[in-house]
Amino acid sequence: MQTNILEVKGVKKYFKQVKAVDGIDLNIRMGEYVAVLGPNGAGKTTLVEMIEGIQHPDEGEITIQGKKWRGHSEELHHMIGLSLQETRFIDKLTVLETAILFASFYDLGEKRAKEVIELVGLSEKHKAYVVNLSGGQRQRLALGIALLNKPQILLLDEPTTGLDPNARREIWAILQKLKSEIKTSLILTTHYMEEAEVLCDRIIIMDQGKILSQGSLDEIIHLNNFYEVVEFSLHENPSKDWNLAPYTQQCIEWNPEKLTGKLYITKIQEDMPLFFELLKSKHIQLNQFNYRKATLDDVFTTLTGRHLTEQS
Ligand SMILES: Nc1ncnc2c1ncn2[C@@H]1O[C@H](COP(=O)(O)OP(=O)(O)OP(=O)(O)O)[C@@H](O)[C@H]1O
Ligand SMILES: [Mg+2]
Question: Helix, strand or coil for residue 93?
């Protein structure tokens, strides 16, 4: 049986009327990589900061290796590595000086500081002032610092937001290397579906403080009965009694201004003939028709009513 490194039970955190985290249950196994995917304000940072011991739940319990933050904070600080959503460094320190400073918090020395700089590919930059690093290099330094104490669980809050695709992929490569070499567990928050798909064993879709769906990419798509998607557009606006509901098994989106629609279907052989019959009976001309596999964004949009805004 695989053991859980992290257990979150019934955790809630409210800010006045805002239910930032509204009853989350979550177990993370040793070595597991988990992505928390959600739009702005979903509650990702609040959840992650409670796991990190920075914020405290109003209700519920969080344990890391069976231990709560209260009474075990020193021990737990040695087990976790973290990078916050906004990383601030001292501009006039070099990369190496910064790593040494953070290493000293764990009673570690220059040797370990140099190791992590190497690990995140910043050796050539070790003498550069932090202020002169690119966004991607800065995030790699933040990742290196999170790894200083060889954490059992790594928590990264939007490690690649705002980075260009190359810089993002460099961070992914480091995380993939870590996964193959050491048994660190990872929780990362992201707005990027591709990041969740490429890096993580499990994806958690979160919105308004709740988990809406979770599993591997395939599981999420199957659990929510999304298999295939038909996107179409019409030449003219159909009459008011235009209603596809009886003709498909699955969810429908229709935009009357753009004359575009989407069908989420499980049985193309059954649904499509009915769809075409409907168009024919109403004398409606099809403009475009596209059939594809469902993506995480399809599930996400249907569950939350919103798109994941920033995409790579
Ligand atoms: N200290 C606070 N005081 C009041 N409200 C807060 C506080 N921290 C967070 N919130 C609110 O709680 C909700 C969740 O915020 P949180 O920062 O956890 O979201 P998020 O998923 O990390 O969003 P983003 O993707 O923008 O980082 C938001 O509505 C936010 O405004
Ligand atoms: Mg956040």
Answer: coil
Please state, as a whole number, how many other Cβ atoms lie within 10 Å of the Cβ of residue 233: 14
Tally of domains within the chain:
2
Choice from 12, 15, 49 to test ligand 1 binding pocket (greatest atom count within 8 A of CB): 15
Give residues (CB < 6 A) around ligand 1.
Answer: 15, 18, 20, 38, 40-46, 85
Q: How far is the CA of 18 from the centre of ligand 1 (A)?
A: 9
Nearest CA residue ID for atom 4, ligand 1: 15
Q: Please provide the average confidence, as pLDDT, over all residues in the chain.
A: 88
Is 241 found in the same domain as 187? no
At residue 239, does pLDDT exceed 80?
Answer: no
- Give DSSP secondary structure letters for 129-162: BGGGS-HHHHHHHHHHHHHTT--SEEEEESTTTT
Assigned domain for 30 exists: yes
Range of the domain at 164: 4-222
Q: Are strands 286-293 and 228-234 parallel, antiparallel or unpaired?
A: antiparallel
Residues 210 and 259 both lie in one domain: no
Q: Is the pLDDT of residue 312 over 50?
A: no
Q: Which residues contact 294 (CB under 8 A, 6 or more apart)?
A: 221, 226, 227, 228, 229, 264
Q: Model pTM? A: 0.86
Integer CA distances (angstroms), 32 to 26, 45, 104, 197, in order: 12, 19, 29, 14
Nearest Cα neighbor of 226 from 254, 264, 190 is 264
**Ligand 1 pocket test target in 24, 45, 192, 212 with most atoms within 8 Å of CB:** 45
Kindly identify the ligand whose nearest atom is closest to the C-alpha of 38: 1
